[in-house]
């Protein structure tokens, strides 16, 4: 047990206060009965009720969830394949181009990714909406998914796969019964990351969507542009709560996995 | 038979993501490049492409149109917003390093049990929506917002600070949003640091400050570089934060591209801005990679 000096404790307290106070204030004011931010009108869940009656916002939220589910699944499958290709396939034609394309979206400004995909969809005259945003999200989160799975594959005991193949399992059976069960925590983490990235994205969705497909961040953005309101605070609080639950569940799951694995 | 199935399965592993990326990453990129060399037209899609198909590369090269790029270099709006973006990104990186380093240092010094919790606490805001975190600051910084209220309550400020829609607000929002990207790589390198080296330095008579400057700081350099790159790169092209927290004089290049596209509907010009933005971003990355290789070669 190391002991922290008072200076370092102060640094920790100040640092985490900076990270958390704004979010806590936002949550607190979602329960404010008064519409004015400067006035505390008492505790109320009024704004949550108003939220439930806000049909456009609910539609947008549902669209974002569906988008996240589909695009995260695409991104995870493609990212896992890409990770397998990069870790397992040694040299293949165009490997440099491939790894470049996998990693480039990670440093590409969102405005550039969004613009370039929109121009593609216009060039092939695709109808813009749910599927174009799904493709866009899958493409930009594929690289993140790939990195997560890649790190797990790199520290992986290949003799287990070799043993399975020596015992007569085909590569596909080996993958399904040995490789996948061993890397699944990384695959699950990759999926969650891709889902969150999709749920969070405003810029790329704004470029690639069409009429009738307005995502939750797009709705929130236009509402925020008009000004602060307790109803937005309530919407944000629900989103924060969902994310906090998911992260806590995931870290418990991973911890159990590590305990079981060691 | 089994062998050929296995081989084709192996090929698919590479081919599927490869084709996906060629189609949805490389092809769009080529289209942007082509668009950047087109004239703006009023029809939808608002552009007049300069070449169709690969057979006309010759004629394409002969009528290469750099008009959009010369507009970018001539009109001060564009290069000023590029420079301004670099400036804001650099300031963000420096401030985030200043706050993030002590934080990561304290986290690395904490006991193992606390480290896990602290790590989750740093990552958690990263998982909450970007938009929400920026919105939280609007409530704090706006006139008669929380900050004014708290300062007024303490009797520290008589007048509203009017921070919203200023450069300060943009910097606060940027540092706040990107701080986890700085802390995580710093924590990883500081946590791995061999403490016996510090003890050795102390045994040899160096003060904690000298030990920090001559041992800890140089050894954490990879973390510093990684953290700075992770903050600087997305900060340059940032759109949401300058748009929501900034004002008329905080024009960053991501916002210029957005306006060029959504408000002015000049797609070719937006594409040219995108190309230049990529060049501005890729150059420091290449330099960083070179520096890293050179360091690796020397070691």
UniProtKB/TrEMBL annotation, chain A:
Q: What is its main location?
A: membrane
* Spans traversing the lipid bilayer: 7-31, 61-86, 98-124, 130-151, 172-194, 232-254
Q: Which UniProt keywords apply?
A: Cell membrane, Membrane, Transmembrane, Transmembrane helix, Transport
Localization annotation = Cell membrane
Keyword Lipid biosynthesis among UniProt keywords: no
Give the UniProt entry's GO cellular component terms: plasma membrane
Is tRNA processing set as a keyword in this record? no
Name the lineage. Answer: Bacteria, Pseudomonadati, Pseudomonadota, Alphaproteobacteria, Hyphomicrobiales
Ranges for domain ABC transmembrane type-1: 61-251
Official protein name in the record: Putrescine transport system permease protein
Membrane topology term reads: Multi-pass membrane protein
**Alphabetical list of InterPro entries matching this protein:** Bact_Polyamine_Transport, MetI-like, MetI-like_sf
Can you tell me which family this protein belongs to?
Answer: Belongs to the binding-protein-dependent transport system permease family. CysTW subfamily.
Q: Which processes are annotated in GO (biological process)?
A: transmembrane transport
Automatic annotation (TrEMBL), chain B:
**This protein's GO CC annotations:** plasma membrane
Please list every transmembrane segment annotated in the UniProt record, as residue ranges.
12-37, 84-104, 116-138, 169-190, 211-236, 267-288
What keywords sit in the KW lines? Answer: Cell membrane, Membrane, Transmembrane, Transmembrane helix, Transport
Describe the location of the ABC transmembrane type-1 domain by residue ranges. 82-288
Return the PROSITE patterns for the record: ABC_TM1
Q: Which InterPro entries match?
A: MetI-like, MetI-like_sf
Give the GO terms filed under biological process for this record. transmembrane transport
**Main location as per UniProt:** membrane
- Its domain of life reads Bacteria
Membrane topology according to the record: Multi-pass membrane protein
Q: Where in the cell is it found?
A: Cell membrane
Is Transmembrane helix given among the entry's keywords?
yes
Protein family per UniProt? Belongs to the binding-protein-dependent transport system permease family. CysTW subfamily.
Q: Which PANTHER family match?
A: INNER MEMBRANE ABC TRANSPORTER PERMEASE PROTEIN YDCU-RELATED-RELATED, PUTRESCINE TRANSPORT SYSTEM PERMEASE PROTEIN POTH
By what name is this protein known?
Answer: Putrescine transport system permease protein
